Amino acid sequence: MKRPFLLCLCWLASLVSPAASRLAAQDRGAAALGEAIAGLGTTARVLMIGAHPDDEDTLFFLGKVDLNYVWLQLGTLGRKTGWDEYWEARRSLDHALRMDPRHVRARVARAWVDYIVGTTVPRGVRWLLGGGNKKRGLLAVRDVVAQGSGDVFVQAEATFALWDMQVREHEVREAVATARGLARDFPENAELRTFLVDHDSPSRLTIPAAAP
């Protein structure tokens, strides 16, 4: 049972790992935290949830930590592990969204799971990962970005996710428009600059100069 699941997770990790580079500092910290918390074992995570049973932010962070642990183990370290953490992540995110369906970061994280499973795992075995739906994931992130968020970081995280999905879907025009907006706020992001140089029209390309 676990062997086909781990193969599915390998597909997920190989594609989600590049997405983590969008917000490198955040994800490096989350991955390290994920490894530390995973070392505490499932009991510690249950105790953490029990300490804040009605806190959707805590549930989101637990889900995010578990996902980062899975990506770290499979995508970076090449270790075939992550069954428990993957399901803990899905449960935490789903619980957070039941409590607050408008929780932006939980919506984006859950949308990534839907999108990656829906695009990279063969249809016949998606049930091993709880199912996935590419269109649902993409639509959820588009809605989050369109609705906006009062928090600059949260909005940036959602917009980077949207850009990543647009690139994966080969929606070049939409991806360029999203990248332009991100480049205004993150002029030193080399990946954005490279993407715009490669895909934007020279006559319309305006990338703020990076600080020396």
Order of helices and strands: HHHHHHHHHH
Specify the structural class: mainly alpha
What integer is the average pLDDT?
A: 76
C-alpha Rg (nearest Å): 17 Å
Q: β content, as a range?
A: under 5%
What is the oligomer described by this structure? single chain
- Work out the helicity level: over 70%
Question: How far from one another are the termini?
Answer: 53 Å
Characterize the main sheet. Answer: none
How large is the count of helical segments? 10
The dominant shape is: globular
Number of strands: 0
What does this structure look like?
The N and C termini lie far apart (53 Å). The chain is globular, with a radius of gyration of 17 Å. The protein has 212 residues and is mostly helical. 74% of the residues lie in helices and 0% in strands.
Considering the chains and any ligands shown, give keywords for the structure.
212 residues, mainly alpha, 10 helices
Structure in a nutshell:
The protein is mainly alpha-helical and 212 residues long.
Describe the protein's topology.
Elements: H1 2-20, H2 24-40, H3 42-51, H4 56-76, H5 83-99, H6 104-120, H7 134-147, H8 152-168, H9 172-185, H10 190-199
Helix pairs in contact: 1-4, 1-6, 2-4, 4-5, 5-6, 6-7, 6-8, 7-8, 8-9, 9-10
